[in-house]
Amino acid sequence: MDITSTLHNHCTLCDGESTPREMINAAISLGFTDFGMSCHGYAPFDPECSIESEKAYLMAMARLKKEYSGKIRLWCGIEEDLFAPSACREEYDYIIGDVHYAHDPASGENIAIDGSENDFARALNLIYGGDVMWLIAQYYENMVKAAEQKPDILGHFDLIVKNNRSGAFFREDDDRYISCALEALRACIDCGVIFEVNTGAMARQKRAAPYPAGFLLKELNRLGGRVTLSADCHRKDLLVSHLDAALSAIQSAGFKTILVWENGKFTEKEI
């Protein structure tokens, strides 16, 4: 199928490498009809990765919408982390909800579990005393909390595996891990969110397959869950990176359709 819409994108207003105009122009050159920017919401504890101000971000996107009117339908979204809730939710065209951090209740610090392997190890040892199953359980509990906030899209559901290359921290075929992930998945489905099939880690050469993993996609399909495609793009030349592999994973899980954002709403389309 032709890919003409994308919503999960970042630019230099947060931690992206390309400017907003570079990203939008790249989308136009690819023949996109709809393009959404979804910068990381304001997080005072992680200024390098987040926007500086929600109001300034919304104003910048409003100017770009006006500038590109008639060339492409431009949408303003936000990637809202559980630990950095938006103060302007109603002003966005859509919200991507997810979890990037482990929270230390003792110090109040939030440590990025999708940062470096050293960050992951630090969170594991400082907060969870080296008990990786405790960390995993807490992460998936937090994903359910993120889904309960009713975002339009639930982002990279099993991000917890990003730094687990070659089983560095845990076995992904461990029954305890699988059970924990599936339990959270079912709870998130009950919240009515749309799950993104996200290829961001593939573009960064961190993973060989998209989020969520195959066993999770199969359960999503079995339970009637809904999915949409996302490259989680941070650079203009990666707007459609590995989306063919994501479509293949979706089909292998048994899905016949995906949701595509067109003209301000999601439309169900056959793969």
Condensed summary:
The chain has 271 residues and is α/β, with parallel strands linked by helices. The chain is built from 8 helices and 11 strands.
Q: What do you see in this structure?
A:
With 271 residues, this protein is of the alpha/beta class. The protein has eight helices and eleven strands. It has helices spanning 20-29, 54-67, 117-128, 132-148, 175-190, 200-203, 214-222, 243-252, and strands at 5-6, 34-40, 73-81, 94-98, 101-103, 110-112, 153-154, 194-198, 227-230, 257-262, 265-270. A seven-stranded parallel β-sheet has the order 1-2-3-4-7-8-9. A two-stranded antiparallel sheet has the order 5-6. Helix 4 (132-148) runs parallel beside helix 5 (175-190). It is globular, with a radius of gyration of 18 Å.
What is the 3D form? globular
Helix share, percent: 25-40%
Separation of the first and last Cα atoms: 6 Å
* Unreliable runs: none
Beta-strand residue fraction: 15-25%
Number of helices: 8
Strand order of the largest sheet: 1-2-3-4-7-8-9
Supply Rg: 18 Å
- How many beta-strand elements? 11
The ordered string of helix (H) and strand (E) elements is: EHEHEEEEHHEHEHHEHEE
Largest sheet: 7 strands, parallel
Indicate the structural class: alpha/beta
Global mean pLDDT: 97
